[in-house]
Design brief:
heterodimer, B: alpha/beta, Rossmann fold, 9 helices, about 40% helix, binds adenosine-5'-triphosphate, binds magnesium ion
Chain lengths: ~250, ~260
């Protein structure tokens, strides 16, 4: 029962978020700040994690599938498709739910408990739209960029780790990367990252916006937002995979 | 002018405001006094509809705020300024940006005009050289004063102050009281102030509403308050030993 009322108030909040902004120029300024804070500051960690994961996936493929019957181009191909289909969208989104989601929940939650949101409302500002809309746009905009960066870095990671292990040469690996490329996989994953990006911004924002109490509750909302967002990401991964691959 | 009629508010069956009816006049400083926990903040937030009351009417110059839709409410709120008990400054903005925020949001002033007005507002609350500091880098009393500067930045028609001078030294406290009084008279606005400060009560108490037990305990002005025979109010305003002695002396004089 509580789930339904939560879903109801989530959509009510979204309705307020997407109503017309007061002053577009200020929203632009907010948007630029959010893109910097939520997006640009995530580039480094995404790149590092992806290089390592690309390397690890390549090594795993190399050691677990090496047999004389197995063509070596499968290593590059396997790494590429793992990155594109699941790692660079789903796993990365789970990570972003931890990094960006907890940040959004605690920022908005502490604004709630220190009456800054009341203060905005009292000035006649639509606080929901002012605080949340720029974050949604920023995260949804940056998600596909992070996806592309991640795939790219993951392939580089494989390119470093694969030939170093000696099982696959640079030429074989690169050959694999170019073999049997399905452009639809990329479209599919970009659709997923857009949906996940929306969840990463809105679920923590909703939980933060409705905090009642003090610092303790803000911490709790932050934890809850990571858990809920992660579950929702996996749930929507399942749904979207079923819908788009049918 | 703000008129409230039979306001009632409970939190989880715990009644905080049982029945409050009063009139806050324009061009006057209207004080709400009462013990800590008596519901002053709840009353103030109910009036501006940050808290939804259970029953009652709240009329801003005849307009019932409880019946307004989202857009009308937003318009009415642009005529309000409020100083929250904790200041509620935006902590991602500097002091100057906080005061400039309402101007950015609702006016088409040029950057130069805005900066001049920010200086003017901060000067009025006696803040100097703190423009570029963050709210976390200034003292509690300074935060209160910046909040006042922000609340008066757009010359509101209705000004709400929740304990504007708690945490301030006596000198600054008087400065803030006088500033609020000055603005109220100068712009002919309706000002509501929550306070426990007896100095403020005596200095700027044009109308005083004493809340006790969630009801109007007493109403009057700063001269009447000294001679009241209301037992609860007497206990409240003559709580300190010094004022008790003054009261006893006065009573002895009365008896003689
Ligand atoms: N959101 C809320 N939920 C439940 N109870 C509340 C809520 N807000 C206030 N109260 C209760 O209402 C009562 C009055 O609180 P209020 O903050 O109005 O007191 P106050 O008169 O402003 O006190 P102070 O002078 O200390 O600021 C308190 O007992 C408080 O516990
Ligand atoms: Mg209070």
């Amino acid at each position: 029962m509580r789930v339904f009322s939560e879903i109801g108030s989530y959509f009510l909040l979204m309705y307020r978020v997407f109503s017309r902004p007061e002053k577009t120029r200020i929203y632009w300024r907010q948007l630029v700040l959010e893109i910097e804070k939520l997006g640009i500051h995530s580039l480094g960690i995404v790149a590092i994690i992806s290089v390592f994961m690309g390397g690890i996936i390549t090594l795993q493929l190399t050691y677990n599938t090496s047999s004389p019957l197995m063509p070596t181009y499968l290593i590059g191909l396997g790494n590429r498709d793992t990155l594109i289909l699941e790692f660079s969208c789903t796993v990365l989104s789970l990570m972003m739910a931890g990094k960006v989601g907890s940040n959004i929940a605690s920022e908005i939650g502490s604004m709630r408990v220190t009456e800054q949101i009341d203060s905005l409302e009292l000035m006649g500002v639509n606080s929901a739209s002012f605080l949340i809309l720029p974050k949604i746009i920023a995260v949804v905009f940056i998600s596909p960029i992070l996806f592309i960066l991640s795939v790219f870095c993951g392939i580089i990671g494989g390119l470093i780790a694969g030939p170093l292990s000696g099982v696959v040469t640079v030429a074989e690996y690169m050959g694999g990367i170019k073999t049997a490329f399905v452009p639809f996989f990329v479209t599919f994953s970009i659709i997923k990252t857009l949906v996940f990006g929306f969840l990463i911004a809105t679920v923590p924002a909703y939980l933060g916006y409705n905090v009642q109490g003090g610092a303790l509750e803000v911490g709790r909302a932050s934890t809850r937002s990571v858990v809920s967002t992660s579950i929702l990401i996996l749930f929507f991964d399942l749904i979207l995979t079923q819908l788009l691959f049918k | 002018m703000i008129e409230i009629k039979n306001i009632k508010k409970s939190f989880e069956n715990r009644p905080i405001l049982k029945d409050v009816t009063t009139l806050f006049e324009k061009g006057k400083t209207n004080l709400i006094i009462g013990q800590s926990g008596s519901g002053k903040t709840v009353l103030l937030k109910s009036i501006v509809r940050l808290i939804e009351v259970d029953e009652g009417e709240i009329l801003f110059d005849g307009r019932d705020i409880r019946k307004m839709n989202f857009n009308d409410l937003k318009k009415l709120r642009q005529e309000m300024g409020m100083v929250f008990q904790g200041g509620a400054l935006f902590d991602s903005l500097t002091v100057a940006e906080n005061v400039r925020f309402p101007m950015d949001m609702f006016t088409s002033m040029s950057a130069g005009e805005k900066n001049k007005h920010v200086d003017f507002c901060l000067d009025r609350v006696n803040i100097k050289g703190a423009h570029h500091l963050n709210p976390s880098e200034i003292s509690g009393g300074m935060r209160k004063r910046v909040a006042i500067a922000r609340a008066i930045a757009l010359n509101p028609k209705y000004l709400f102050c929740d304990e504007p001078n708690s945490g301030l030294d006596p000198v600054t406290s008087i400065l803030i009281d006088n500033l609020i009084k000055e603005i109220t008279v100068e712009f002919d606005i309706t000002t509501l102030i929550n306070t426990h400060d007896m100095n403020s009560v005596m200095e700027i108490g044009d109308n005083i509403l004493f809340i006790s037990n969630g009801e109007n305990g007493w109403e009057g002005n700063n001269t009447q308050v000294l001679f009241t025979r209301n037992k609860k109010l007497n206990e409240f305003i003559f709580a300190s030993p010094l004022s008790k002695r003054i009261r006893d002396l006065r009573q002895r004089e009365d008896d003689e």
